[in-house]
Specification:
Layout: E1 2-7, H1 13-26, E2 31-35, H2 41-51, H3 61-85, E3 89-93, H4 96-106, H5 111-121, E4 128-133, H6 136-145, H7 157-173, E5 178-182, H8 187-201
Helix pairs in contact: 1-8, 2-3, 3-5, 4-7
This protein binds thymidine-5'-diphosphate (TYD).
């Protein structure tokens, strides 16, 4: 099973993923925890390029999208597909839905560009994706408390509102795969809700 975790900044994705990881391990399941952009040494280098605020030139939106997919292609081949083939559960912190929400809904790139890349370079979409949804201000306060802001975290509230509406659009279009979790609740309740969705799936 391939599960991804999505949402805007500071909505508690990391907490939920770790709870889920512990849950599967405790139940004796073989589970892999990974993230995007990144997840392999080469893809992590691409991540550094994407998140760095120290570029001498501004990164074009097309470059950003292509780098996301370059990292994803490497990650799929090296980590995700082999793990799934070996019968493992893969928990991934962000995947293609983030490209739709951030690069299309947020940056304004066309859906056609993303579709071209996703159709050709993503062999396997998650079986289920959790969208942790919370008001933007709440998450941004949490992100600011974590320290230095990366290139995305430095964006304005209006950008993240667009990203959030992108996730909402995905949820509307693919309700069976893209599950919304109310991330304003306690981490424990978010976890319980996620487990309920997983039980419904099996
Ligand atoms: P992440 O480390 O998950 O950020 P956070 O912990 O703040 O949620 O992801 C890094 C950033 O990359 C995040 O701001 C969202 C962005 N991103 C995209 O814009 N497109 C993508 O396809 C992915 C995977 C991430």
């Amino acid at each position: 099973m391939f599960i991804s975790f999505e949402g805007t900044e500071g909505v508690g994705k990391t907490t939920l993923i770790h709870k889920m990881f512990d849950h599967f391990q405790t139940n004796g399941r073989d589970v892999v925890l990974t993230r995007e952009p990144g997840g392999t040494p080469m893809a992590e280098q691409i991540r550094s390029l994407l998140l760095s605020v120290n570029h001498e030139e501004s990164m074009s939106h097309d470059t950003e999208l292509l780098l996301m997919y370059a990292a994803r292609a490497q990650h799929l081949k090296q980590v995700i597909l082999p793990a799934l083939a070996a019968g493992k559960i893969v928990l991934c912190d962000r995947f293609s839905d983030s490209s739709f929400a951030y690069q299309c809904a947020g940056r304004g790139l066309s859906r056609d560009k993303l579709k071209l890349l996703n159709d050709n370079f993503v062999e396997k979409m998650p079986d289920i994706s959790f969208w942790l949804d919370a008001p933007i201000e709440l998450g941004m306060t949490r992100a600011r408390e974590r320290g230095a802001l990366d290139r995305f975290e430095q964006e304005k509230v209006s950008f993240f509102e667009k990203v959030r509406s992108g996730f909402a659009e995905l949820h509307r279009n693919e309700p069976n795969r893209m599950k919304r979790l109310d991330a304003t609740q306690s981490p424990e309740q978010v976890f319980v809700d996620a487990l309920t969705e997983l039980k419904d799936l099996s």
